[in-house]
Amino acid sequence: MTTSFPPGFRWGVATSAFQIEGATTEDGRGPSIWDTFAAVPGTVAGGDTGEPAAEHYHRWPQDLALLTGLGVDAYRFSVSWPRVQPAGRGRVERRGLDFYRRLVEGLREKGIEPFLTLYHWDLPQALEDEGGWRSRDTAHRFADYAALVHAELGDLVDHWTTLNEPYPCAVAGYGEGRHAPGAKEGHGALAAAHHLLLGHGLAVQAMRGQAAPGHRFGVVLNQSPAVPVTESAADKAAAARQDTLLRRQFTDPLFGGRYAPGLTAMFGAASDFSFRHDGDLATIGVPLDYLGVNYYYRLHVADAPPREPDPARRTAADIGVDTTRLPDVPRTGMGWPVEPEGLTEALVALHNGYPDLPPVYVTENGCVYPDRSDFADYERISFLSDHLAAVRDALNAGVDLRGYFAWSLLDNFEWAHGYKHRFGLVHVDYTTQRRTPRASYRWYRDFVAAQR
User: Residue 289 maps to which CATH number?
Assistant: First the structure.
């Protein structure tokens, strides 16, 4: 493993704004859909909210020191849209932009490459009140926001990611109701998925039109290959439906120049697809400089009857698939199957399926296990080691991989799970905000050092 990765391969860790920053009402920040969602009783485990998170907004120098100690040469983070543009349009909050400038200046001083993500799920609530991602206008507001941040930080940031994981934004947020904004819709979720992609394309066009030489633009997608639980035709068809919903709904328009075959047949009763306009595919499919892949687990699926008998009333997640039947394999503390080969499978499938695929980074990969008092998280070390071997296998299979980012630097607000689950290489005591590196932090530090 010490000599398996090519020269120039980037090593990093990742975080996101809402999950670590805290300070949700400070310095002019506006409310996001996650602030609103978390305030509703029963939506987030333990009644947790974005406060205090890891107080990164005030403790970022301490976290920068942790990055330096880790020895990584890249850091993936996100900008909070409502922190820099509280209403999602119009007025700009200079204090928010100044915070991100201080952060990226600090990264540059330490020789750490910033990988900036513009949207990691925290839509300004003011835009949700106007329809959110169901509305085509939100795609245009996102492009304006992207151009604004790019103009402000483009002298310090070369790597620009538009969206993190549009699938959960659209399907979990607007279809299943388990993520913000908590909607359970058919047409609305499909429109949200389309407008997220449209916003991505418009944002890349806007930024590229003002970019300096060397700026690179990409998007991040979660990839969970669907595996049929039996060899029956019905279960194989269920796996194909799941793959269309989670993966091809996004990869085909981005890299294949088409809408995913079978999508309209799956949702004909739920949507007339009138949100698709002439020219949208060309905008969505704007050439990219990289693709980020987030991988945590495979989905083992079986055919099942839709939960809602009336097709016109089904949500976008109700596609006649049962994903609850897990194989007899090790699982993380969240119950997710540990199958590193799924990462290789996902990367090779993208490589083989899209001839014009840009270079790829693994932008999130991590796990949760119960903590020991001494923070000796040997299960996480094993998880990382096995998945890095899977990355090596994908490289050997010809995938143009350029880097790996572990999730996550810090324990954080884990969305609907609140603070129950901890992904961090560094433990955070949310009462004292003390940071304590786990054994996995030291293991990853030593592993990265061995690649140099």
Answer: 3.20.20.80
